[in-house]
């Protein structure tokens, strides 16, 4: 018998608050960026490079270039302080990523779909960060900007009604 996951008690920002965060963001660091096309971070990077206004900074100590973009070994190696840090790392790595995010002075921490760490969220908010968990920047950007079809979602209407002739 497996241990049940702890209840989620932290409340993230509402849709209007997430939209406001994305609107005020100018630069995004993608921590855990991957050169593997089957990885979510690769797909998110591809989408953001082609369909968003953000300056992207990719972070991965094992890569030097992804999609023609330079890759930095750490957040503190970036040439700028990113507005938002988008995280594609294992659960156990999240407290360290939070510490690094705070150390460089970023304003927001965004944990991707499936990533939930209540202690990290509470510590981040207490330190003044905007925190989003278990959401995808690509999906949220596309949703707010009418581009879900570009993000791999079929937004066509399916109906059982006959078309009127």
TrEMBL record:
<feature type="domain" description="CoA-binding">
    <location>
        <begin position="21"/>
        <end position="115"/>
    </location>
</feature>
<dbReference type="InterPro" id="IPR036291">
    <property type="entry name" value="NAD(P)-bd_dom_sf"/>
</dbReference>
<dbReference type="Pfam" id="PF13380">
    <property type="entry name" value="CoA_binding_2"/>
</dbReference>
<protein>
    <submittedName>
        <fullName>CoA-binding protein</fullName>
    </submittedName>
</protein>
<dbReference type="InterPro" id="IPR003781">
    <property type="entry name" value="CoA-bd"/>
</dbReference>
């Amino acid at each position: 018998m497996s241990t049940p996951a702890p209840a989620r008690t932290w409340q993230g920002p509402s849709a209007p608050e997430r939209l406001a965060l994305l609107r005020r963001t100018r630069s995004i660091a993608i921590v855990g960026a991957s050169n593997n096309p089957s990885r979510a971070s690769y797909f998110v990077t591809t989408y953001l490079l082609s369909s968003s206004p953000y300056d992207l900074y990719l972070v991965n100590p094992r890569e030097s270039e992804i999609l023609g973009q330079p890759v930095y070994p750490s957040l503190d190696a970036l040439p700028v302080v990113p507005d938002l840090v988008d995280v594609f790392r294992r659960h156990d790595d999240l407290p360290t990523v939070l510490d690094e995010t705070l150390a460089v002075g970023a304003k927001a921490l965004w944990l991707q779909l499936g990533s939930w760490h209540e202690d990290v969220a509470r510590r981040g908010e207490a330190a003044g960060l905007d925190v989003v968990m278990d959401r995808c920047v690509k999906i949220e950007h596309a949703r707010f900007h009418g581009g879900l079809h570009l993000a791999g979602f079929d937004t066509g209407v399916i109906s059982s009604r006959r078309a009127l002739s």
